[in-house]
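User: When convenient, might I ask for sequence and structure tokens for a protein?

AI:
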Amino acid sequence: MKPLRSILTAGVAALSLVTATVPAHAQWTVFDPSNYAQNILTAARSLQQINNQITSLQNQAQSLINQARNLTSLPFSSLQQLQQSIARTQALLQQAQGIAYNVQNIDQAFRTTYAPASASMTDQQLVSGAQARWQQSVQSLQDAMRVQATVVGNLDTNRTQMSALVSSSQGATGALQATQAGNQLLALQAQQLADLTAAVAAQGRAQNLEAAQRAAAQDQAREQLRRFLTPGAGYRPTTVTMFHN
């Protein structure tokens, strides 16, 4: 503003000199240099205020645009695929053959099928129990392999979902999209941990049933050995007819 003020001052001085040299009888339009300079300064200040208001409105508009981006939801969702993967694994666990993943069923089986052999049991009951335990072990191994196959099958789905989620996270336009992508990545990790837990549980079940079968077989073998070594009534001769008259 100082250069403008200097120019206006110089113009006022020049007009004063011209006015002083004009003859008295000449006709001049009345001109107030001071008032003119004041009007120029007022117009300049008004223009500066308008520019400031325009800049403020531009900043507010950009802020609203940024807020809209931050509130934009992520267009990609892997929730359905993750839920389907978990449902497949859970369905296999629920289809467990023989002794299922249930505390009451386990207790009942160890009171009957895996119970210690007793002297009151017949030989046929001992054989039937051994066959039932062997069948339980084979079924549990099959269940474990089925769960493991399902977990391996989920790996391809997980890889596809992870690639899509990482791409969505890197291309997120706002904070909400980045947060949602991060949450879905955590959900994918939770699903993978659930698959790992199911595989470990199925494998542990198979190993435990195999160990229980060996323990029951050893106990049954001791009972059968005891029966074999126990003295009987001995040999008693009887009359046998070999030829008919």
Summary: Residues 17-22 have pLDDT under 50 and may be disordered. The helical segments are 2-20, 33-70, 79-94, 103-111, 123-170, 175-229. Residues 175-229 form the longest helix (55 residues). The chain has two domains: 2-23+30-70, 79-229.
